[in-house]
Design brief:
Strand content: 5-15%
Shape: globular
Number of strands: 10
Distance between the termini: 28 Å
Order of helices and strands: HHHHHHEEEEEEEEHEEHHHH
Bound molecules: coenzyme a persulfide
Length: 379
């Protein structure tokens, strides 16, 4: 059966998230972008309002929210500011490997604290020399008695500076390739962790992206999640979960660009009429609207398949690739519709365009998504 309507509960989450974002995020997004301010207090407010850590299962007191519902919230948050949304989604990305790979004791130990108090988390997979080719990571973990000792460097880590908890992928056997990769839960206060200054980014400037080094970082044996050698599959399954979420964040940005453009196209007049009544602009708006809706449907289908327990690897990559690419096109067109004004900070669309670019890069570039899709097609 195909149904396109939202349930009463979903409409309520959507309404609540929309209201929260309109009050706490949208009015501040320009200032955060300008100053690079990390909006920790507003992220805490999202946690207080039940908009954070939606993947934590109800067995440990979490929301245990279906992915479709999480996406509905993600669109609203990203409409206000996708840099802010990235910081919120980084918690989902970092905690999902624990949800997927941990036993019940570990879930209680590592996830319950996120239910009880406001905390941030970071997912540490990428390295200076291992981004798209994530399996070539070089961070090592060595067993010494009852402990694991982690050494290496991670790069492009969202929430790095502010996180209380890291999920770290390291190899216990470099010769074994991806079969040596193992997942570890690492609390922030463990000695040996150094966080470098955060990156000065083109867009999504209020999100915190920084390198981390691990120098003889020791964690107890029970901080190894899913067992040695099982980290790669946990990472890949995590990305299957997070890519629809990132795709929907692109929909939020695209919808914002579309709405700003429609508003402007009604106000701005040339040749005696609003520019939206010129076919050149009207057709651009039409394409932007159609792409936004197509993107939304792709993202929701990938999430729905995940919720049903159906294979969603290919669909998650359809969604991530197309939503990110369309979002970039839509934001570029929005700047074009605003003309010279669109290129200034007087209007929000130049920020949307800078922010959109990162969605084509992080959590698997648009090219990597096509690698995943083409491999599936040729299987
Ligand atoms: N779920 C479960 N297992 C998966 C999987 C998935 N979605 N995707 C791949 N695997 C498994 C494969 O089945 C294979 O298992 P076996 O060894 O048992 O046969 C194994 O993983 C290796 O697969 P593959 O050979 O395809 O791995 P590659 O190293 O060629 O890389 C891609 C595959 C490109 C998909 C992977 O490197 C990738 O996703 N890269 C991008 C990483 C990324 O998104 N980085 C951003 C940082 S996170 S913010």
């Amino acid at each position: 059966m195909i149904a396109f309507g939202l349930t009463e509960d979903q409409l309520e989450y959507q309404r609540m998230a929309r209201q929260f974002i309109a009050q706490n995020v949208t009015p501040n997004a320009g200032h955060w972008d300008e100053t690079g301010h990390f909006p920790k207090d507003e992220i805490r407010s999202a946690w207080e309002n039940g908009l954070l850590n939606l993947c934590i299962p109800d067995s440990v007191g979490g929301a245990g929210m279906p992915l479709v519902d999480t996406l509905i919230i993600s669109e609203e948050i990203s409409y206000g500011c996708v840099g802010y949304s990235t910081s919120c989604m980084a918690n989902e990305l970092a905690l999902t490997p624990v949800v997927i790979g941990a036993d019940e004791d570990q879930k209680r130990k590592f996830l319950k604290p996120f239910v009880d108090e406001f905390k941030l988390a970071a997912f540490c997979l990428s390295e200076p020399g291992a981004g798209s080719d994530a399996a070539s990571l070089r961070t090592t973990a060595k067993r010494e008695g009852d402990e694991w000792v982690i050494n290496g460097q991670k790069q492009w880590i969202t929430n790095a500076t502010h996180a209380d908890f890291y999920t770290v992928f390291a190899t216990v056997d470099r010769e074994a390739g991806h079969r040596g990769i193992t997942l570890f839960a690492v609390p922030r206060n463990t000695p040996g962790i150094t966080i470098a200054p955060h990156e000065n980014k083109m867009g999504q400037r209020c999100s915190d992206t920084a390198p981390i080094s691990f120098d003889n970082v020791r964690v107890p044996a029970d901080h190894c999640i899913g067992g040695p050698g099982n980290g790669w599959k946990i990472a890949m399954r995590t990305l299957d979960f997070s890519r629809p979420l990132v795709a929907m964040s692109a929909v939020g940005v695209a919808r914002r660009a579309l709405e700003e453009s429609i508003k402007y196209a009604k106000e701005r007049k040339t040749f005696g009429k609003p520019i939206g009544q010129h076919q050149a602009i009207g057709f651009m708006l039409s394409d932007m609207a159609a792409k936004t809706q197509a993107a939304r449907l792709l993202a929701l289908e990938a999430a729905w398949r995940t919720d049903q327990g159906l294979p969603a690897n290919k669909e998650a990559s359809f969604a991530k690739a197309m939503c990110a690419d369309w979002c970039m096109e839509i934001c570029t067109d929005a700047v074009q519709i605003f003309g010279g004004y669109g290129y200034t900070k007087e209007y929000p669309v130049e920020k949307l365009m800078r922010d959109a670019k990162l969605i084509q890069i992080y959590e698997g570039t648009s090219q990597i998504q096509r690698v995943v899709i083409s491999r599936e097609l040729m299987r």
